[in-house]
Amino acid sequence: MRCERCGAPIKEGQIFCPTCGIEIQQKTHEAAEPVLTQPGMKREYAAEPVLTQPGMKRRYSKEPTACAEETVAATEIYAEETVAATEMRAEETVAAPPAKPEPVKMPEPVRQQPVKAPEPAASGQKSKKGLLIGLIAAGVAVIAAVVVLLILQPWNRNGGDSGAMQAQTAVSTAIPTPDPTPEPELTPEPESTPEPEPEPEPEPEPEPEPEPEPELGYIDVTVTAADIPDEMISEDGRYQIAFITDGGPVQDNSFNQKSWEGCKLYAYVNGLSYKYYQPAQMTDDEYYQAMKTAAENGAEFIVCRGFMQGTALERAARECSDIRFIFVDGWSFGLDNVSAVSFCEEQAGFLAGYAAVMEGYTKLGFCGGGGGTNPACCRYGYGFLQGANAAAAEKGIVIDVKYSWQFGASFSYSPELETMVSGWYASGTEVVFVCGGSMFVAVVNAASHNNGWVIGVDTDQSLESDRVLTSAMKNWSEAVYTAIFAYNKGMWTGNGQEMRFGASENGVCLPIESWRFRNWTFDAYYALLSEIANGQIIVSDQYPTDDMDIFSNLNVELI
After folding, report:
1. Which of the residue ranges 171-175, 210-214, 338-342, 387-391 would you say has the lowest mean pLDDT?
2. Phi, psi dihedral angles at 243 (to 5 degrees)
């Protein structure tokens, strides 16, 4: 039999395995009984030898032998099985390493039991010869057992060490020795960072150039005149900016209101106090008294609007030489403390006449105030004719124009004027340009009755009638603001100088927000305004007094 754990051969009667020391569970195998077929036949053994472990070779006895021969054969089988089991154990150990072997305990020597001779078959025949053979066989068996014991004894003494060595070898073979923990790689020292090149010293920033003074005609403010109240109360009772109206109220939606807006806007932006004065009557004494009161109230600038204040202004300016006067639509009298502000009315008239013809109208009219002696009205009328002629020339047509100074010497409404203009509309006139104060009312009445159109003047008069096609405007507020600014900054010192505002100074324009043109476009308007401002189109201010037969594409009828 063999050990169930390590497969080593175990002799009968052994309690522990001589190799691994495990306790052996004894199993008893009965010898096969010989089979006797007939009396006198030799013994044959039908049973196969008992195999205690897989891999043992089967040996069969072909010839019946005596006990001695069987003992020898058994000894040979045992030896062969031991070698085979040792080889098989080595193979199994390599294939599947066993658990860590326990220390081997050497078993105590076991006495070899004598081999019992097989009992003879129940033939009933016992001879002396058979008894002798049995005794000899028994003796041989004893000798053989002793020889085997002597042979195996050294193996048992060295078996433990050998088995432990084999087990250790098998374990070391099956369980790979772990690789030694690799030494951590040394982190390479970072390359030395090259020292940064010294930054070049920053070049000194150039000193900012001084901001240029704003051009005349430009207002850089964040508020509008409408946001500023007309009246204020000064803490010290002094009002630095004063405005004298042209006889009417300050809120007249015309030249008084627009001039006043320029005054209070400049005062507000520059932190100055302001006040307007309205004369009781449109006389020289009333104008002078208003100017005198403004001076007594601490005025530094006195703005007067309208040529009718000329006489009073000259008197006040001579008496108050430390106060600066700005005469809008006037002149300077050659005095150092008076500056005159005027407009290029001829450019505004040009814009109106050109626009009317480009819109498609071919029959025009003009009514002027002052009887043909007022320079501003004359420039308006003459510019209107130049613009209409230029547009007609572009279109290759001829325009009819009625031109009159009648019934307007006083710049006032008159029934005669309304009757005359009504006749114009009735005879085919489509648009009439009127410039002269209250003359506007007479022309608007005539237009309303005849479904005609009117062109206003100085300010946007579209709010006064739905028959207003457009207006030839002066930019009063910006001109006044700029005149005070320039005078105060030393850019303009008076001394008989006159400051004129035209297209290049944003002093003249048409009101694009309210015009009633359907064909002429904003782009065309701005292109024309730009050409006038940069000098591509020259509008003459040298108006003729009686000869109007100078236009290539106009038929002018003087009335």
Report:
1. 171-175
2. -130, 130
